[in-house]
């Protein structure tokens, strides 16, 4: 997987991980992939719903030592 950018949103509470993700996604071109790291447990549902509503693809997500990692491909 070719990651274009990594966003560190660890320690931020809802809705900040989504707000920051949206800002960075606006800087990317279609097809590029953003990797997001967050500790907000609500992000599991939020990221999937946000990606779908924005026409993006949630490629993968992992839970690694209390850190949720998401890979979203810009639509």
Automatic annotation (TrEMBL):
CDD domains referenced in this protein's UniProt entry, alphabetically: SirA_YedF_YeeD
Coiled-coil residue windows: none
Domain UPF0033: 7-31
Pfam families found in the cross-reference section: TusA
PANTHER family: SULFUR CARRIER PROTEIN YEDF-RELATED (PTHR33279)
Family as reported in the entry's similarity comment: Belongs to the sulfur carrier protein TusA family.
Name of protein: UPF0033 domain-containing protein
Species annotation: Neobacillus bataviensis LMG 21833
